[in-house]
Amino acid sequence: MPPMSTLGPKHAIPRLYAVYILRSRQYPHSKSIYVGSTPDPPKRIRQHNGEILQGAWKTKRGRPWTMEMIIHGFPSKIAALQFEWALQKPAKSRHLRSSSSGALFSRPSDLASHIAVARAMLSLAPFAGWPLDVRLFSRDAAKVWDACEADAPPPTGGAALTAAARNRRVALAFGGVEERGVRVVRDFGGVDGLGEGRAEDVEGLHETGRLAVKDEDFEAHHVSKHLHLLEAHPSHQLPCAICRKQVYLVDHLQLALCPLPSSCVSVAHLTCLATHFLSHPAPSPSSSSSSAPTPGSSSAPTSTPSLTPSQILPSLGACPACHAPLRWGDVVRGCYRRKEAEEKQVAQAERARLKALERAGMLSEEEEEGDGEGQKEEEDEDSDVERTMAFGAAAEESFVSAGGKGGGLSDASAEESEVGGRGR
Questions:
Q1: Backbone dihedral angles phi then psi of residue 184, each to the nearest 5 degrees
Q2: Based on the number of CB atoms within 10 Å of its own CB, is 259 exposed (0-12), middle (13-18) or buried (19 or more)?
Q3: What stretch of H or E contains 239?
């Protein structure tokens, strides 16, 4: 049986796929917690609260639920599901075990123990090598997160330690995560933007105030920077910033372009930049304050963790031109965003060409069939919703004509299926 993988000719880094932690607000002292994953957190919390269809059956009890935090930036959906499973069952995960003492964590039972486990996971392989970000939506979650800092006083007690206290004690041993490249955003406006206390400089938001789930800001900056290079260099070639050999600007999966939303247009071969990252640590903020990334940038690490002899891919490094600290995952993310933008542009040009030929009466049967197949592959959720609504309207009209009271469809189906969560 072939190994399960999302890699291949059509592999793409998700725009957003998040692992989230919910807390029940049914009663003032409710402690029920639910862990899940989704590509659309604002929509998912509405499903869990029964506002729209397709909520998990485990969260029918305990409503209303609030989303306390999310972790996102996973390189694939499978990677997010691996993180979710380990967060749900840390005592069974092979990534959270030591050769001497076995399982590092007890089974988490409340918000504090779940956050302690999640924070420690961000410091362990393979999760520490991914460009992950944390978003805290409540002050309670932020308080627990800050309590896991390395300089916080550890819990006291011996064998009678609670699961939450034991998990926090283990999390303290791993220290901070920001220096490993993890960005932590405190967004008290909530995942839906309806909460109070949101700071004015919070990034990653849709114009409606909700969490942005399409990665629009990063893509817009990065693709615009790449198009500027193509216009300025008609040959579509530039010297690699490291080996000085020519790098092709249209070879997206081999071209590394500085992912920061700045004026830096440094380009390099992807393999050259990986070698450079492994051999040159990222600068600390004290040594490169003038080149630190701006708020909303794609990276904000402060230093590079020590490398292991077997490490093949880097996690952090410094841009060879602007010397700003970068996350390797953001460099690769830029490769796929450029590739997707070009494929979309080519598809749009082809559709325009076929429509022009169709209007001129010059379209062959083979091209008509090919155009139909292409349009079918590119149908998105909006078109699905339109068809569903049309079907619902037709069904309602038929029902009314038969003497009943119409009631159309109440909602479109969910984008994602629920993958094991656990509620207490």
A1: -115, 120
A2: buried
A3: strand 237-239
Strand ranges, E, within 151-194: 183-186
Looking at the DSSP assignment, which residues form a beta bridge with residue 22? 34, 67
Residues 6+ apart with CB under 8 A from 299: 131, 181, 183, 259, 260, 293, 324, 325, 326, 327, 330
Give, for 98, the enclosing helix (H) or strand (E).
Answer: strand 97-98
**Of 46, 22, 48, which Cα lies nearest the Cα of 35?**
22
Position 139, amino acid? R
Q: How many CB atoms lie within 10 A of CB 88?
A: 22
299, pLDDT greater than 50: no
Residue 408 has a pLDDT of: 35
- Lookup result for tokens 């957003």: 16
pLDDT at residue 157 greater than cutoff 80: no
Under the banding of pLDDT at 50, 70 and 90, the label for residue 143 is very high
- Angle of helix 163-173 relative to helix 111-121, nearest 10 degrees, comes to 20
Strands 133-136 and 183-186: parallel
pLDDT tens-digit series, residues 75-112:
999 999 999 999 999 999 988 887 777 888 888 889 99
What integer is the mean pLDDT of 282-291?
39
How far is the C-alpha of 19 from the C-alpha of 37, rounded, in Å?
4
Contact of 219 with 240, CB cutoff 8 Å: no
Is residue 35 within 8 Å of residue 88, measured between CB atoms?
yes
Strands, E assignment, 250-348: 255-257, 267-269, 316-318, 325-327
Q: Measured between alpha carbons, how far is 272 from 247 in angstroms, rounded to an integer?
A: 11
**H or E stretch covering 133:** strand 133-136
User: pLDDT at position 257, please?
Assistant: 97
Of residues 326 and 297, more confidence is placed in 326
**pLDDT at residue 310 is higher than 50:** yes
- List the Cα angle 166/169/171 in 5-degree steps: 110
- Average pLDDT of the chain, as a whole number: 78
What integer pLDDT is reported at residue 369 of this predicted model? 60
Residue 183 and residue 320: Cα distance in Å, rounded?
22
For 41, the 3-state DSSP assignment is: helix
**Residue 27: helix, strand or coil by DSSP?**
coil
